[in-house]
Amino acid sequence: MPTGFSWGRLGTRLVVPYEAPQGRRVNVVGALAPYAPGGPRLLFETRRKPQGRYDATAHLAFVQRVAGMSPDDRRRPCIVVLDNYSVHHSQTVKAALPALAETNIHFWYLPPYSPELNAIEPVWRQLKYQDLPIRSHPTDHALQSAVEHALARRALHLQ
């Protein structure tokens, strides 16, 4: 959060610039593959409000992109660990499970209220509190750019 206080000379009014964040939100979805061939990988996708919601269709598209949906190349099973976000349990996702299982992609759901079991949670925390030192951006494009840059640096750090 932006600083709401500061020190200044006695008798002078200190003005701390602040940009109101209304309408500037960036949603991020990520996949952490800690045991990927060639070392750990962090794959991500960001979206702003004008780019559409992150719904079940977008979720399945992300899973297919991450898993490399070529069934011929998929010899090892791909296990996708999911938390209890409503999109992960939607009817569209449940209907796609048999087709995903045919391509050797399986979902495993974490128990409710167990973020400590989700390996990507520490990455989100480091990104939010350490990799994004500037907390206020003038536009949603600037915020998305900063988030993507921080995620790309974090992805390189994992390798």
Indicate the topology.
Elements: E1 26-33, E2 41-48, H1 56-67, E3 78-82, H2 91-102, E4 105-109, H3 121-131, H4 140-158
Parallel strand pairs: 3-4
Antiparallel strand pairs: 1-2
Helix pairs in contact: 1-2
Annotated CATH architecture: 2-Layer Sandwich
- Helical residue percent band: 25-40%
| Main β sheet profile | 2 strands, antiparallel
The CATH class is identified as Alpha Beta
Give the structural class. alpha+beta
Radius of gyration: 20 Å
Q: Give the amount of beta strand, in percent.
A: 15-25%
**CATH third-level topology:** Nucleotidyltransferase, domain 5
Large-scale geometry: elongated
Strand arrangement, largest sheet? Answer: 1-2
Number of strands: 4
How do the SSEs run, as a string of H and E? EEHEHEHH
Supply the number of helical segments.
Answer: 4
Terminal CA distance reads: 30 Å
Mean pLDDT: 85
Low-confidence stretches: none
Query: How many domains in all?
Result: 1
